[in-house]
Design a protein that fits this description.
Layout (H helix, E strand, L loop, with lengths): L8 H10 L13 H14 L7 E2 L2 E2 L9 H4 L2 H9 L1 H4 L12 H11 L25 H8 L1 H4 L23 H4 L4 H10 L19 H15 L14
Antiparallel strand pairs: 1-2
Helix pairs in contact: 1-6, 2-6, 4-6, 7-11, 10-11
Length: 237
């Protein structure tokens, strides 16, 4: 069911709860329950703390979330959470897939204006494709090296801030057991989909399929290995 203007009813109701009626759109203080829920979503479900810090926990690649409301206005916060590439093309921040209601709550918790989120969400804004073949090495340097290291040794500047060590893509003994499909799915949908840590982000809302395939191919150059025989074209069934 949708609101008369096309807004899903459940999200329209949430936006009414998160803002005070009237022309100014002044936000109500969140309840203690809503604060705890937002913090749990950031800490335990989504990948945000893989790069950002909140209350002393999280990564070191991006600004802390505790004081973002003092550094950015409400419209900016809503826009960067909703679609980072649309606001700042080329920024090294993937778009986190999440239900619209959770996005609105997180935006409000951070000090943003949930009414500035596009509803229903517009098309994702993946990195613009290049007229030439995707550069796996360049993509790896931008999106992966911060945790996995420039040579895939798992020694990126953010590695020590993570709750589990990042995969060592240079390690042939480990990587030869992972199929290309498994690598693709982990990059596209995030660590949680492969029963790994949820702070490994999903890049499917930001990178194109050819770009993710280029990353998989580049990882194979780092480990100098192939996946298991059964997973290769022409391998045994």
């Amino acid at each position: 069911m949708r609101h008369a203007r096309g807004t899903p009813v459940h999200l329209a109701a949430l936006l009414m709860l998160l803002t005070v009626p009237g022309g100014q759109g002044v936000a109500q203080p969140l309840s203690g329950f809503a604060v705890r829920k937002a913090e749990q979503l950031l800490r335990d479900k989504h990948s945000c703390l893989g790069c950002h810090r909140l209350k002393g926990e999280g990564g070191q690649l991006a600004p802390a979330l505790d004081d973002v409301r003092g550094r950015r206005d409400a419209a900016y916060i809503a826009a960067i959470v909703s679609d980072p590439q649309r606001l700042k093309p080329g920024v090294s921040m993937p778009r986190v897939r999440m239900p619209a209601s959770e996005r609105a709550l997180i935006v409000r918790y951070l000090g943003g204006d949930p009414t500035r989120i596009e509803v229903p969400p517009g098309a994702l804004s993946p990195v613009a494709p290049s007229p030439t073949a995707p550069d796996g090495k360049g993509l790896y340097a931008q999106w992966c090296a911060g945790c996995h290291g420039t040579t895939g040794m798992g020694d990126g500047p953010n590695a020590q801030a993570l709750p589990v060590p990042p995969a060592r893509h240079h390690d042939a003994d480990a990587m030869r057991w992972r199929s290309d499909d498994a690598l693709f799915d982990t990059i596209e949908a995030g660590g949680a989909i492969m029963n790994r840590h949820h702070r490994m982000p999903a890049f499917g809302g930001t990178l194109t399929t050819p770009q993710i395939r280029a990353l998989v191919a580049y990882i194979r150059t780092l480990c100098r290995c192939q996946g298991p025989a059964w997973s290769r074209d022409g391998g045994p069934p």
